[in-house]
Design brief:
By secondary structure, this protein is α/β, with parallel strands linked by helices. It has two domains: 8-115 and 309-332, ornithine cyclodeaminase, domain 1 (2-Layer Sandwich); 132-307, Rossmann fold (3-Layer(aba) Sandwich). Helices cover 35% and strands 24% of the residues. Strands 1, 2, 3, 4, 5, 6, 7 and 16 form an eight-stranded mixed beta sheet that branches. Helix 1 packs parallel to helix 3 (111-130), helix 3 (111-130) packs parallel to helix 4 and helix 3 (111-130) crosses helix 11.
Length: 335
């Protein structure tokens, strides 16, 4: 991976990312990344965070290296939960790519759009690997950016015949539903409670900023598959202990789960299970070394924390597409 010209950095915007990275392409890309990670093809330090003194926001640092596609770089992202419901995304930042031959910075890309697409794409990979073939009754908890991209990802891997959405802010849920219903492409039902949204659903995506559980294990239908993506800190969770305990738990990366997943760690601290409750990594299933769903009525759970090489692979793909087809602005940096 080399720069188009020495000393120049290609800057790619939110619009560039959405133009160059489609959901179907990203799903296949993320499957390759997860396979590479589970076979040992990634260098992934645990992410680090710098909190503001009042804990209203933080900067997260996610560096990494991936051997295929050959990618070196990091994501720097701010997380300000108070932005939910405002004109600002809760996650904002950049992904930086470096040339692997000489260490030259070659690209800076908008991180919000990459995160939105690749997170949902990984859930698409998990759904394809774990959900029942006939699954099509979808419940989405949350009505923000990730709700929209997750709906696109679920439609890319399963024939969705029903969609229900719930949000702690009913106006957000209604706006989300109206956005799809206005052109007649899809009917989205707004539900008054999370329980009503997931009642009988065989696909569930939790995409909230909740710190306390919004999904209870007692509500889950036999055979349901859950993609849990909203909780990314050890002190926050979207699922209660019963929900995690009832499910066959698959993760993006075991080490990250043991250090950062509140959904897992809080339930473990309550004595519900030990570390062996993690059945394995999604990449293990894709490599064929682990069985995903063991039986039709089994509840499966993909706990997604997000790992740096997902961002790097997405950025590498966008960068190569921009070089081939045009996009971004080339900016001179360095000597």
């Amino acid at each position: 991976m080399t720069a188009p010209s020495s000393g120049n950095v290609l800057v790619l915007s939110h619009a560039d990312v959405y133009r160059l990275l489609t959901m179907p392409a990203c799903i296949e890309l993320m499957a390759d990344v997860l396979r590479a990670t589970s076979r040992g093809g990634a260098v992934l330090p645990l992410r680090s965070a710098v909190w503001m003194p009042d804990r209203t926001g933080m900067i997260g640092l996610m560096p990494g290296f991936l051997d295929a596609p050959h990618s070196l770089g990091l994501k720097v992202v701010s997380i300000f939960p108070g932005n939910h419901g405002t004109g600002y995304d809760s996650h904002q930042g950049v992904v930086m790519l470096f040339d692997t031959a000489h260490g030259t910075p070659i690209a800076i890309l908008d991180a919000s759009s990459i995160t939105a697409i690749r997170t949902a794409a990984v859930s698409g990979v998990a759904t394809r690997a774990l959900a029942r073939e006939q699954a099509g009754d979808l419940a989405i908890l949350g009505a923000g950016v990730q709700a929209a991209t997750h709906l696109a990802a679920m439609r890319a891997v399963r024939s969705i015949h029903r969609v229900r959405v719930w949000s702690r802010n009913p106006a957000h849920a209604q706006r989300f539903a109206d956005g799809y219903s206005s052109d007649g492409s899809l009917r989205v039902e707004v539900m008054a409670s999370a329980r009503a949204a997931v009642d009988g659903a065989d696909l569930i995506c939790t995409t909230t900023a909740a710190r306390e559980p919004i999904l209870e294990g007692a509500w889950l239908a036999p055979g349901a598959h859950i993609n849990a993506v909203g909780a990314c800190f050890a002190t926050a969770r979207e699922l209660d202990t019963a929900a995690v305990a009832r499910a066959r738990l698959i993760v993006d990366r075991r080490e990250s789960t043991l250090a950062e997943s509140g959904d897992f760690l809080i339930a473990k601290a309550e004595g519900a299970f030990g570390d062996d409750h993690i059945a394995g990594e999604l990449g293990d299933i894709l490599l064929g070394t682990l069985v995903g769903r063991e039986r039709d009525d089994q509840i499966t759970l993909f706990d997604s924390l997000g790992i740096a090489v997902e961002d790097l692979a997405a950025a590498h793909y966008i960068y190569t597409q921009a070089i081939a087809h045009g996009g971004g602005a080339s900016v001179p940096l360095g000597a």
